[in-house]
């Protein structure tokens, strides 16, 4: 039976049990310190985040005073990563004047202090800076040069394209990294387009809807002429509008994690239950992260959704877990144990969480997704399909692409 959070129908990836009571004679019971946090922040308005010293904002680390030791580092974007992006984003999108909001293009890299997003802007005053200054590469400089995308490249090359991104690390959570400014507007657009066009349609990529409904394949969430028929005849069908609004929760790509048994059904790539991972996405991520992309869960969050604290422990490999945020802002929690104080982190569209090393199996969850915080460059471009339906769908969605190595 799929385990759901007690307050929402969003399933946990690998739901963890409540902390066990200590054995008889021990000093005190184990206290779950995650629960008060993700409950209290559910009612926090987005405008209040900047004044909450307990929430780490990667774009304004100096305002954080919640108890964890935070360091940040600005790094040049490598030519290897730039070339990987050039191959991932089609040339047609690179030359589209509407592909980045604002009627003028800055090039393939944009500042993490994004003026196109709604809501309060990060602190850009004196102190620690995370802005990606320096020259930006323009579209006419893009190339299709071949790149080496071998696994485990060891991070970013020393050679830089001129843009800068920021990595935030936590001393008490070694192996955890929060990366901002690495994903350009165009790249984020393409990741959303690929989610709709490549990750959702195949019958091999199962969704939460497949358990109870006959899902038409190829699955097109913008085809309003189609309904999803329930597997129990007496149950009403789902309209595609309902699917887009709240009913579509997740899709699995690559290894098909089983939500009931909490295991992967196959460990042989290319077999039933382990379709090959999308090669373009694998090449992109493995060009910079130490991961062989074999499985991913793409979660679709709506305002009000939460994800219970859990560990991702089903994989045999201990390679880094890479999590990409697209769309609306959220507060993300991470901690070594359920009975330790979690670190709340504000995540924006384009932010990346890497959980590796001693933090690979850390507890983590999502406590709040804020409505009306999707940046305009994701809502106002032409995705190549119904623009009006797309805009109304993505405007209040958080799309999280959580990639892991299985073997």
UniProtKB/TrEMBL annotation:
GO terms for molecular function: dioxygenase activity; metal ion binding. Keywords: Dioxygenase, Iron, Metal-binding, Oxidoreductase. The keyword Flavoprotein does not apply. The keyword Iron applies. Fe cation binds at residues 310, 312, 364. Residues 292-407 form the Fe2OG dioxygenase domain. Its cofactor is Fe(2+). GO terms for cellular component: cytoplasm; nucleus. Pfam families: 2OG-FeII_Oxy_2 (PF13532). Residues 1-30, 92-140 are annotated as: Disordered. InterPro entries: Alkb, AlkB-like, AlkB-like_sf, Oxoglu/Fe-dep_dioxygenase_dom. It comes from the Eukaryota. Binds 1 Fe(2+) ion per subunit. Residues 124-134 have a biased composition (Low complexity). This is Fe2OG dioxygenase domain-containing protein. The lineage of its organism: Eukaryota, Fungi, Dikarya, Ascomycota, Saccharomycotina.
């Amino acid at each position: 039976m799929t385990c759901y959070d007690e307050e929402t129908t969003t399933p946990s990836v690998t739901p963890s049990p409540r902390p066990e009571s200590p054995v008889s004679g021990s000093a005190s019971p184990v206290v779950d310190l995650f629960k008060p946090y993700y409950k209290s922040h559910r009612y926090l308005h987005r405008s209040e985040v900047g004044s909450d010293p307990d929430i780490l904002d990667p774009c304004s680390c100096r305002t954080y005073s919640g108890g964890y030791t935070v360091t940040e580092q600005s790094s040049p974007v490598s030519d290897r990563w730039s070339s990987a992006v050039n191959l991932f984003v089609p040339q047609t999108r690179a030359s589209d004047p509407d592909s980045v909001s604002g009627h003028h293009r800055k090039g393939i890299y944009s500042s993490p202090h994004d003026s196109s997003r709604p809501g309060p802007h990060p602190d850009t005053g004196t102190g620690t800076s995370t802005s990606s200054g320096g020259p930006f590469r323009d579209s006419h400089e893009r190339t299709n040069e071949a790149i080496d995308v071998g696994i485990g490249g060891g991070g970013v090359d020393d050679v830089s394209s001129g843009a800068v991104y920021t990595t935030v690390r936590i001393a008490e959570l070694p192996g955890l990294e929060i990366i901002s400014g690495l994903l350009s507007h165009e790249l984020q657009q393409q990741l959303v387009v690929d989610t709709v066009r490549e990750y959702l349609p195949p019958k091999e990529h199962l969704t939460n809807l497949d358990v109870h409904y006959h899902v038409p394949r190829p699955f097109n969430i913008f085809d309003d002429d189609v309904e999803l028929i329930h597997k129990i005849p007496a149950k009403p069908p789902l309209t595609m509008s309902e699917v887009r609004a709240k009913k579509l929760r997740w899709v699995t790509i690559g290894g098909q994690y089983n939500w009931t048994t909490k295991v992967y059904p196959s460990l042989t790539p290319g077999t039933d239950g382990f379709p090959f991972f999308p090669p373009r996405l694998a090449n992109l991520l493995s060009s910079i992260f130490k991961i062989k992309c074999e499985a991913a869960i793409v979660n679709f969050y709506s305002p009000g959704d939460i994800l219970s604290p859990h560990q991702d422990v089903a994989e045999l490999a201990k390679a880094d877990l890479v999590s990409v945020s697209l769309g609306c802002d959220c507060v993300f929690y991470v901690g070594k144990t359920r009975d330790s104080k979690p670190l709340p982190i504000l995540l924006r569209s384009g932010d990346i969480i890497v959980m590796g090393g001693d933090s690979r199996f850390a507890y983590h969850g999502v406590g709040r997704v804020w409505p009306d915080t999707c940046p305009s460059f994701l809502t106002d471009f032409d995705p190549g399909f119904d623009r009006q339906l797309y805009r109304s769908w993505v405007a209040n969605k958080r799309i999280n692409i959580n990639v892991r190595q299985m073997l």
